Automatic annotation (TrEMBL):
<dbReference type="Pfam" id="PF06999">
    <property type="entry name" value="Suc_Fer-like"/>
</dbReference>
<comment type="similarity">
    <text>Belongs to the AIM32 family.</text>
</comment>
<dbReference type="InterPro" id="IPR036249">
    <property type="entry name" value="Thioredoxin-like_sf"/>
</dbReference>
<protein>
    <recommendedName>
        <fullName>Altered inheritance of mitochondria protein 32</fullName>
    </recommendedName>
</protein>
<dbReference type="InterPro" id="IPR009737">
    <property type="entry name" value="Aim32/Apd1-like"/>
</dbReference>
C-alpha cells in the first residue's frame, strides 16, 4: 500500500510539474472541459462583434426654407471691423447651426436706451418691466413653465408715448407672434399680468404637466379674455433688425453692435426700405387717442414699400459669436417679383456677422428670402416651430 501511495503521489507531482511548464499563451490545457464549453459562446460572440458592419447613408432632409451656402462679398464700401479687446476673441471654430436656444416667445421691451446693466432686471433699482416679467414667469414664478421658454430682452426702441407725463409707460414687441403691445403702464401690475396671461402662456400644456392638479393646469394656460385689458395691440408690419449691443454684459457685442446698426440702416435705405426711428403710433379707442403725443414725423402712414426698424438689444446668448443679429420678417412681406417672401413670419438668427456681411444679409435674407447657411444659428416660425438646417 505504501508503494502504491508513493507511486500515485509521484504521478500527481509529475502532472503538476508538466502543467507548470505549459506556455502561458495556451491556458486551455489548464481548464476543465465544462468551463471550456461555457466560454465558447462568449468567444463566438466576441468574434462576431469584430466583423465590420456595413453603414448605410441616411438621406438628409432639406431645410424647409431657401438657403444660400455663404454670404456674398460686398459690392460697396462697408465699415471696417472694429478692433476687439485683446483678451476677448470671436469663436470661429464652433458650428453655428443649432446654437440658438429654443424659445416659445420673445418679449422685446422698448427702453429707449442703447446699453443696460449686466442683468437687465437690475435696471432702475429693479423697477422695470423685465424684472416684473421674470417675477411672474422666471424660476419660482407663479406662471413658471420649464417646457415653455419665454425669452425677455431689452431693446433701444422707444416706447409709445402717453399723453400724461406723470404716467410711466412701457411698450413691448412679441415674436414670433409679431404683436406690438403699446401700453403697459408702470403704475399697475395688472397690465403685466394681462400680458402674461393673454399672450405669453401656452394654449396647450406639455404632456409632462398631466399629473398636475386642475387648478395648477388652469393657471398655466393662456386666458384669451385677458387680452381685453391691453389696449391698442397691433400687428407688426416693419422688418425688425435686432443687434446685440449689450456692452454692460460683454465688450464684444458692445463694440461690434453699434457699427452693425449704422451699416444696416444705411444699406436698408439704399434698397428703398424706409427706416423708422420714432415711437410706434397707435390709434386705439377714442379715450386713449387723446392721451397720445403724436409728432408730425410719427403720423406718417405707410403708403408703399417696406419699412424697417434697426435696434440694439440686450444679451441673447452666444457673445463669443458676435456680432449676433436677429431678423424678424413680418408676415405678408413680398419680394420684388410680387411673391411672398419665403421667410415672412420668421425670425432668423445669425452669428459672427461683420460689417462686410450686412449688404449680403439685406439682399439675400430681407429681400430674397434666403437663409445664409454659414451664418445661421437657428430660427423660429410664426406658431413656434424651431428652424434648423
Amino acid at each position: 500500500p505504501e508503494q502504491a501511495a508513493n507511486a500515485k503521489t509521484d504521478i500527481t507531482s509529475d502532472k503538476i510539474r508538466k502543467a507548470s511548464q505549459l506556455p502561458r499563451a495556451s491556458p486551455n490545457y489548464l481548464l476543465p472541459s465544462l468551463l471550456l464549453m461555457s466560454l465558447r459562446p462568449i468567444a463566438r460572440s466576441t468574434w462576431r462583434l469584430r466583423v465590420p458592419r456595413r453603414h448605410y447613408a441616411i438621406p438628409s432632409k432639406p431645410p424647409p426654407f431657401p438657403t444660400t451656402p455663404t454670404c456674398p462679398n460686398p459690392t460697396c464700401t462697408c465699415s471696417a471691423m472694429p478692433e476687439l479687446p485683446p483678451q476677448l476673441s470671436i469663436d470661429y471654430k464652433t458650428a453655428l447651426n443649432g446654437t440658438m436656444a429654443p424659445y416659445a416667445e420673445q418679449v422685446l421691451i422698448c427702453t429707449g436706451q442703447e446699453d443696460w446693466a449686466s442683468k437687465i432686471e437690475e435696471e432702475n433699482s429693479g423697477d422695470n418691466l423685465a424684472a416684473d416679467l421674470k417675477e411672474l414667469i422666471g424660476r419660482g414664478g407663479m406662471y413658471a413653465d420649464p417646457y415653455h421658454n419665454i425669452s425677455v430682452a431689452n431693446s433701444s426702441f422707444p416706447s409709445t408715448v402717453a399723453g400724461r407725463e406723470e404716467i410711466q409707460n412701457s411698450s413691448a414687441y412679441l415674436f414670433p407672434s409679431f404683436k406690438y403691445i403699446p401700453f403697459l403702464p408702470r403704475v399697475s401690475f395688472d397690465a403685466v399680468q394681462a400680458l402674461v396671461q393673454g399672450y405669453l402662456l401656452p394654449t396647450k400644456l406639455n404632456p409632462a404637466h398631466d399629473n398636475l392638479s386642475p387648478i395648477h393646469k388652469d393657471r398655466l394656460r393662456r386666458k384669451e379674455e385677458a387680452k381685453a385689458m391691453l389696449y391698442g395691440v397691433q400687428d407688426v408690419k416693419d422688418v425688425l433688425v435686432l443687434i446685440c449691443g449689450h456692452g454692460g454684459r460683454d465688450a464684444r457685442c458692445g463694440v461690434i453692435g453699434p457699427v452693425l446698426k449704422q451699416d444696416f440702416e444705411r444699406l436698408l435705405e439704399k434698397q428703398d426700405i424706409g427706416i423708422r426711428n420714432g415711437p410706434v403710433v397707435v390709434k386705439g379707442p377714442r379715450e386713449y387717442e387723446e392721451r397720445m403725443v403724436l409728432r408730425e414725423e410719427e403720423e406718417e402712414v405707410r403708403q408703399s414699400g417696406d419699412t424697417a426698424r434697426v435696434g440694439l438689444i440686450s444679451h441673447i446668448g452666444g457673445h463669443k459669436f458676435a456680432g449676433n443679429v436677429i431678423l424678424y420678417i413680418p408676415p405678408g412681406m413680398r419680394m420684388a417679383d410680387g411673391k411672398e417672401n419665403p421667410l415672412a413670419g420668421c425670425g432668423i438668427w445669425y452669428g459672427r456677422v461683420e460689417p462686410k456681411h450686412v449688404e449680403g444679409i439685406v439682399k439675400e435674407t430681407v429681400l430674397g428670402g434666403r437663409v445664409i447657411e454659414d451664418l445661421f444659428r437657428g430660427g423660429i416660425k410664426q406658431g413656434g416651430e424651431i428652424l434648423r438646417l
